[in-house]
Amino acid sequence: METVIKNAVTDLEDILQNDQISTNPTILEQHSKDESYHKSSLPDVVVFPKCNKEVSEIVQIAAKHKLHVTPFGLGSCLEGHVIPYEHGITIDFSLMNKVLEIREKDFIVKVQPGVTRKQLNNELKKYGLFFPVDPGANATIGGMTATNASGTMSVRYGIMRDNVRNLEVVLADGSIIHTGNSAAKSSSGLHLNGLFVGSEGTLGCFTEITLKVYGIPEHITAARASFQTINEAVEAVVAIRQAGIPVARMELVDEPSMVQVNQHMDSNYQEVPTLFLEFHGNEAGLKQDVAFTEEIVKDFNCIEIHFETDNAKRNQLWDARHNLAYAYIHAYRGRKLMVTDVCLPISELAGAIHHAREALDTLHLPGGIVGHVGDGNYHALIMVNTEDSEEIQKAEAFNKQIVDYSLSRGGTCTGEHGVGIGKAKYQQQEHGDALNVMKSIKKALDPTGLFNPGKIF
Amino acid sequence: METVIKNAVTDLEDILQNDQISTNPTILEQHSKDESYHKSSLPDVVVFPKCNKEVSEIVQIAAKHKLHVTPFGLGSCLEGHVIPYEHGITIDFSLMNKVLEIREKDFIVKVQPGVTRKQLNNELKKYGLFFPVDPGANATIGGMTATNASGTMSVRYGIMRDNVRNLEVVLADGSIIHTGNSAAKSSSGLHLNGLFVGSEGTLGCFTEITLKVYGIPEHITAARASFQTINEAVEAVVAIRQAGIPVARMELVDEPSMVQVNQHMDSNYQEVPTLFLEFHGNEAGLKQDVAFTEEIVKDFNCIEIHFETDNAKRNQLWDARHNLAYAYIHAYRGRKLMVTDVCLPISELAGAIHHAREALDTLHLPGGIVGHVGDGNYHALIMVNTEDSEEIQKAEAFNKQIVDYSLSRGGTCTGEHGVGIGKAKYQQQEHGDALNVMKSIKKALDPTGLFNPGKIF
């Protein structure tokens, strides 16, 4: 072990218990990667703090020894956010996994960053509440905040940034700040909440997160609508949005991905372009919404629409949707997942998906298209052989095509996965001179570049 | 005229037409104040640019001559945001007042900063769309973006920050950036959109604003519910929120303010604590929501609840609510308006309003309490004699009491009016060390302190 690491570990031993510090190769390896195709890289040491004070002291020790700091939730990210390419200290938040406070009347909850979204929803259920942001993985709230995650319900309930009320953050100098408050809105000072949500560990470490939560809807109906073409499915989405129907979920799954759904669920749904929908509301209103939707999809040659109000069956359906990336990963062992993540104005969505589908067909790689199409966000999932550099190049060229298409039509290179290492190359193209503003903020808050180097910027 | 001003005007004359530059005393006086009790201060010169290029050149001329820049919409703000205490150049955006693009399918609209909210809604109506953020005044979209305004519909549709998709901003060096894109969501880069919304002209000048807009609801019902006590009215609000009824508006008006409403509307509503409510939705769902609400308010000894579906009468009702501040101003000529603006977690709202009411009664000044109570945001309006320094002191002490109460209970010093000069003194108390982060961002983006000095920081 290098002297600098040894000295840092000695300092860490002064403030942490022995089982909170690890240089064990297996542990280092677990913290060297995420769930994507991005190359792995080992941290020098992994620490497991239990409170904000420990996080602050770890950051100060890192700064003293000029070691980089990488915050780590569960490693379920998809653009290499947690991979420590410059090594240093990885802070794993798995011991900070408590739901600290549930305030039913205020519809807010305070959690530690290591709480996972399923753990949170299990706790909230007792109070008739739920938290709607649901990326595919059972990610940590800290990670979801860092990447500004969204998911299937954002079309109705918003993304992480819309649902974070307050953050406790440890900054590069070890100081601890709060970025918001517990009120529903505020016009006081600059909006640090929104700045830190989506900052991907480049500005500081979150130690407490206050979230907005929601009452479990009185009535829920799910629907599965099968179409002849992907284009008709997407056009139906646009029409439903135009009609002002407040859908809670609106997911597209293409033919190859329906094959995966059937395998994963042991179901025999038609393997055609399919919309998964969900409606939340009071009984009477919901009935009217559902009837109106049924009318609209018929205009787009919907083959079949099937409604589901049974809770267990509904959950099974959404589990299948959530596990689609894993279904691909399991079906193509030995290959790794590359997933595009653009988001466009909804008027551009049909064209974008058509373009992606044609390009995907020329790749001759296993994969499919799914998406949170109510938001204009879709993913092309491709299973790549990371040993084959030509294949990687081909897949990356495809990803670039998708991004170019989106950026030229007013969209973004990432709707929900974040920049990490994978989308850093598109930041100048997307943001132009605004990237300089982002860089100057990074420099003002983290002048030595302590936090998560190489990500975003 | 000072030499420095003369030289600046000479430079301005090179890039603007003569009628776009004014040092006329009446024009200067119009740009020396807002609608509040805050002391006025004259700019040296007022300019009226017509495009982003002119704004950029004005900013560069100001920088060259070391003159401060203050952006100005309509001057309807309430905390002195547009008052140029350090003089310099005021940029009036009234000639940049075009709705540039309406994209119905995407539910977005691009406007220049000088467009007013009523002007925008008149344009949008033709497309069956509306923009929900509605501060009392017919403010400009630029000003509403600068203060992160909200209003009566934020409980359902969010605040300015939730509804701004993209901003074109002229920075202190004259460069022009875009802070977002036209997609419904993004996880790309740091969130500059949210940072610039609510920055009160301290970080740059907005030259284009892209907003999220909404379809006009299929059905709308308004309601006016009268209560015996203000406490019961507030408790009813909490209960309606708890029940998960998606109210679109939820406004409290106290007894003295109902007197103003009656005078202004020539109506004879009961002069008791009153909730103004509104429901948006499909016909069936709305009926069920309304029936449920009626049941709930009865539990809180509601004296009378009256529903209104007629469009004209409904608009009249909301006009009365919107014009309340003006009603007070007209009723007490010679006095000026001071208005508190705290926002608290909703569980703290009843206590806060009770506390405010008791404190207000001891002041013996004309005034009342109104509020966007669905958000936990309320205002005490007080009419003060600005010639009487003792009275001003008394009113300011009252404002401080209200703020202290809010901050000690997890709230904020300003829910929607912004900081300006009036709430700058509470920033350290509210934000603690986070204020240093805000200051370092200000310094990074505007190192010479060109923009709107003395505001927020």
Notes on the structure:
Two copies of one chain form a homodimer. With 457 residues, chain A is an alpha+beta fold. Chain A has four domains: 3-94, Uridine Diphospho-n-acetylenolpyruvylglucosamine Reductase, domain 2, CATH 3.30.43.10; 99-215, Uridine Diphospho-n-acetylenolpyruvylglucosamine Reductase, domain 3, CATH 3.30.465; 219-324, Alpha-Beta Plaits; 326-416, Alpha-Beta Plaits, CATH 3.30.70. Chain A is 38% helix and 20% strand. The first copy, chain A, contains 17 helices and 18 strands. Chain A has helices spanning 3-15, 25-30, 52-64, 117-125, 141-147, 154-157, 160-163, 192-196, 230-242, 255-265, 283-298, 311-322, 324-331, 349-363, 389-407, 427-431, 434-445, and strands at residues 21-22, 45-47, 69-72, 89-92, 99-103, 108-111, 129-130, 164-170, 176-178, 205-212, 214-215, 219-226, 247-253, 274-281, 304-308, 336-339, 367-372, 377-384. In chain A, the strands form four sheets. Chain A has a seven-stranded antiparallel β-sheet with strand order 15-12-14-13-17-18-16, sandwiched between helices. In chain A, helix 1 (3-15) runs antiparallel to helix 3 (52-64), helix 10 packs across helix 13 and helix 14 runs antiparallel to helix 15 (389-407). The longest helix of chain A is centred in the C-terminal third of the chain and has 19 residues, at 389-407. Chain A is globular and about 70 Å long. The relative contact order of chain A is 0.12. The model of chain A has no long low-confidence stretch (mean pLDDT 96). Chains A and B meet through strand 9, helix 8, helix 9, helix 11 and helix 16 of A and strand 9, helix 8, helix 9, helix 11 and helix 16 of B.
